[in-house]
Amino acid sequence: MIAVEALRSRAGAFVLRDVTFSLPAGAWGIVLGSAGSGKTTLLETIAGVRRAESGRVLLRGADVTRVPPERRGVGIVYQHALLFPHLTVEENVRYGADEPDYAVALARRLGAGQLLTRGVRELSGGERQMVALARALAPRPDILLLDEPLAAVDPRGRTRLRRELRALQRELSLTVLHVTHDFGEAGTLGDLAILLDEGRMVQAAAPETLFRRPASAAAAEFLGAENVFAGSATPLAPGSDDEAGTMQFHAGSLTLVGVGETGAVAHAVIRGEDVVLARERGGTTSARNVLDGVVVEVVAHGALARVTLEVEGLPLVASVTAGSVSELGLLPGSRAVATIKATAVHLC
Amino acid sequence: MAATARGRGAHRIAAAGVVTGAVLLLALLALPIVVLLIRGGIPGLGQLGADHELRAALWLTAQTATIATLLTVLLGTPLAYLLARARMPAGALVGALLDLPLLIPHPVAGMALLLAFGRASPAGAALAQLGLAVVGSRTGIVLAMLFVAAPLYVSAAREAIARVDERYESVARTLGDSPMRAAWRVTRPLAGRGLLAAAVVMWARAISEFGAIVILTYNPKVASVLSYDRFTGEGLEAALPVAAVLVILALVPLLVLRSLRAGTALGEPAR
What we know:
The complex is a heterodimer of chains A (about 350) and B (about 270).
Chain A: E1 2-11, E2 14-23, E3 28-33, H1 39-47, E4 52-59, E5 62-63, E6 74-77, H2 89-94, H3 100-109, H4 125-137, E7 143-147, H5 155-171, E8 175-179, H6 183-189, E9 192-197, E10 200-205, H7 207-212, H8 217-222, E11 227-230, E12 232-235, E13 246-251, E14 254-260, E15 267-270, E16 276-278, E17 289-301, E18 304-311, E19 314-321, H9 322-328, E20 335-340, E21 346-347
Parallel strand pairs in A: 3-8, 3-9, 6-7, 7-8, 14-21
Antiparallel strand pairs in A: 1-2, 1-4, 4-5, 9-10, 11-15, 12-13, 13-14, 15-21, 16-20, 17-18, 17-20, 18-19
Helix pairs in contact in A: 3-4
Chain B: H1 2-47, H2 52-84, H3 91-103, H4 106-117, H5 122-129, H6 138-162, H7 166-174, H8 179-207, H9 211-216, H10 223-234, H11 236-262
């Protein structure tokens, strides 16, 4: 288990502050945030190589805020592996191991058996990360901190490393905290996603919740939401049987029905994949938002396409399959109808 | 067209000025050494077999410079580490203090050492009690060499250590090392080439020291003092062989340094 409470830490002039979350034992936590948001500082403070100015770090339920890194039982893998360049692969892997045979077996398991006698400068990016992973796990930690370990790895190696990481986490019952820029990794690996921005924690939630219900417009934009509208919300008329938090949102002449936390709502967030397109109105639908628009742009991304409609003077982006684009004959200038469920309009 | 031609002409004049300036400076630096070696090198080397005083001075110089260097490596490396890793309170002040011996005239450094460690001073009296009298002794020579050359070592060692990515130590700490053990197992080998180069620079500076040594210890004579002694007592011709041999001795660390710098730095993070 990893928990931090009101954590504050410093890296030069940069300050990480007010970070609070709890990751259960055996869970996989993802840390997201733009460059310079404090992701590495957070990991280093949990590992103990960076001092916490205030707040607490709890590992396995025990307060380790003042415990040195060598006694925290935490392994760390950095983006650039940071293998010791004066040692061979085997010496690297055995560096912190009480059981050298286990370390070597781990390296073999990760596919680094052929590399043991090599110098680390001869390794590819993927090989380096495999060796760094074996080195970090050789002392048998039950907590593993990963600082973008897949970023410098080619796509093929990345798939393999991701698979090995997942398998090892299950086998060794590791609690993992993983910094990444890859939202795909966040979705497929994470049990908890923590979003940092400019040294502050914006949100900590299940990845699905983080992506569907971002805490702010800035968070939504960082997380890749295609549609973020600024405006204001009003509660629906009394007597409505809508779920709690359903509100009417106004942005210029555009009116949407959406769901959000009560309080000051200033934005509506809609993910592109939640916008369903049709050529004309028709048929019955339970969706609360049916909007007429004109296609202004179609951009293909492999099997998917990003279609931008102009709706009430505002751009509305829909992510659809390339097949749907040709099936519906969506071309710039053509008319289309966008349908969005109220629950897909997140008000924040 | 005319403007372009004028521009090219100005460029050529500027280039010629730069080259001429560089050649002049190089000549200024190299000419005295070359002349000294031509005039005194062969006689100096020839004299080595017969000139007992010269041999003794050279041996004493090498010995004391080595002791001063070893002492500095022992005491200065931890200091350089603390400064490089910004773990020393008032590090900027300490850095400035370290630069001071490099800036003051060396005879002045000798006088300061005499005041601090001479027979009349408490520290000097205590050292004398231990059989380490500073004035007129090898101890004085070592002390003078250390005072003027140690800052060079600490400064270069600090840079060598700072070039080693601190995160290597962080990784070592998470792998079970204490701070000292991580520095010993990771930073020391990675900065090793730079530390050795720093020690060579210090040794070279120590063997060429004159000003501070001559104040503290005229006798026994190191090579630089012997050279001065013969120059003042017997004239330039008598001093030339000693001076030339001293230059040849200084070339050894220079060559070592060149070969060290030609190697690849280990401390750069692997990427």
